[in-house]
Amino acid sequence: MKATYKLMIFAILLSSVSFAQQNNTSTYKKRVLDNTEAEFLTSYYNQDGSNASVTGGIGSEKLNDFTPTVVVSVPLNDDDVLTIDAGISTYSSASSSNLNPFDRTIKVPKSSTTVITSASKGTTKTITKYAKVSSPTPWAASSGASRADIWGNITGSYAHSSNSRNTIWDADLSLSHEFDYNSLGLGVGLTQLLNDKNTTLGLSANVYLDKWNPKYPTELHWYLLGNKSLNSNYFQGVPIYNQNGTEIDKTGNTTTVWNPLNYSFIQNTSRNSYSASFSFSQILNKNAQFSIFFDVVKQQGWLSNPMQRVYFGDVENFYIGNPATIPNYTSRSNNDVFQLADDMERLPSSRLKLPIGMNFNYYLNETFVLRTYYRYYTDDWGIKSNTANIEIPIKISPKWTVYPSYRYYDQTAADYFAPYEQNLSTSKYYTSDYDLSKFNSNQYGFGFGYTDVFASWHLWGLGLKNIDLKYYNYKRSTGLNASIITAGIKFILD
User: Where in the sequence is the signal peptide annotated (predicted)?
Assistant: First the structure.
């Protein structure tokens, strides 16, 4: 989830643990968490569009993702809580499939044979024989051996509260793995409550030490492994066509054959991220609460995605497949031809991100609560963005709440982005990833929640604390559409 999918990536918000106040008139100290809590979360994400980055800014963005997660919080004593968060993401995507589009085959009629099925009645039957032929296309939704993958993550966090419950520090360790990526994360945080707990200050720092296990577009991979020969490995016996649909002489000069001069394998496979966060929250009165946050994020290493193709506008185009379909290459009707990449995405080896945001929540009455959020973001790649979100929880009974919401987002394009066939081979950096393009998006959501702080309903010895179910519809100005369903259920272990 990749790039983007991972482009889009939308996370489930976990329920937070509330910290009880100390009774100053008694030696009794209330525990931070009375009982072990187990939360089961899941989400289903579906998207489609026409600007896949793995196929150079055009092609199917079809993706389906299912992510179940389990979160268990265990009180170690009065002051300390250990939380384990484990989840997997199983997904199928056109992007993964089209890393190697050339293993896609379809059945086509080969011949028809008429046979007699009943000699006495003289009835006949026509049997059509089929043959499998290679049918590469950027518009295949999901096919081939690499169409589905699994991402896994486990995070352990430890939190300690002081006797006054005014100081909380925490630390966490996370591990995640995907077929082409591994990540190790470390984090520490400090929260300080002041002014009779009406003011909250937070500081945190995180480090992610990541490593690529790079997977490359098939044609570029075999090009270098075959010592740049178009008559070895995968290319042996496979015709290559130019823009006019004419088969090229593979031994011709570099101006008439496919020759990705800029291409090379990754040498530095590390990708590290360092972040520091500051937050301030203030209860203004019995109805209103305000908070502000500020982050500094520095990334270093290989920040490009080696799976993502780039096509240059200043070099010749070459194809494998059916030459008659080349004029319709960018149409979804293209079912059997694929353009050979000029290079993979290349981006700077460092990036500085600076988001700043605020929340304002207001209790209107026993039925309505207003929750608002705004964030401004800028980075040294040229992207600036605005995010605004509003949610109005409506309490329809003591235990049931509905959650209508709306989210707006816009951003400018990165300095290195250009659509399909509009990057230049003379540039140092280039990408056709539409997550880095200029766009705006709208997201509408609706959900409901059930909450019982006393966990009076039990199932197999588990007390049900809350249930949440939400649906979101997402539309991007580039044509990408997505639907997201999230669900969560929390139990208390008696």
Answer: 1-20
Tell me if 317 is assigned to some domain.
no
Angle, CA of 313, 319 and 321, to the nearest 5°: 155
- The rounded distance, in Å, linking the Cα atoms of 477 and 20 is 46
| 109 part of a folded domain | no
The predicted structure's pLDDT at residue 140 = 85
- Global confidence as pTM: 0.87
Q: Which of 324, 158, 287, 304 is nearest to 217 (CA)?
A: 304
| Residue 392 domain boundaries | 5-17+31-104+140-216+265-308+345-493
Confidence of residue 474 (pLDDT cuts 50, 70, 90): very high
* Residue of 276, 273, 271 whose CA lies nearest to 188: 276
- Within a domain: 120: no
pLDDT tens digit string along 368-395? 999 999 999 999 999 999 999 999 999 9
Residue with tokens 């077929």: 179
Bridge partner list, 357: 293, 375
Q: How far apart are CA 170 and CA 159, in angstroms?
A: 4
C-beta of residue 332 within 8 angstroms of C-beta of residue 297: no
- Could you give the number of structural domains in the chain? 1
Query: Does residue 23 fall inside a structural domain?
Result: no
For residue 156, the domain's CATH number is 2.40.160
CA distance 116 to 122: 7
Residue pLDDT, tens place only, 273-287 = 999 999 999 999 999
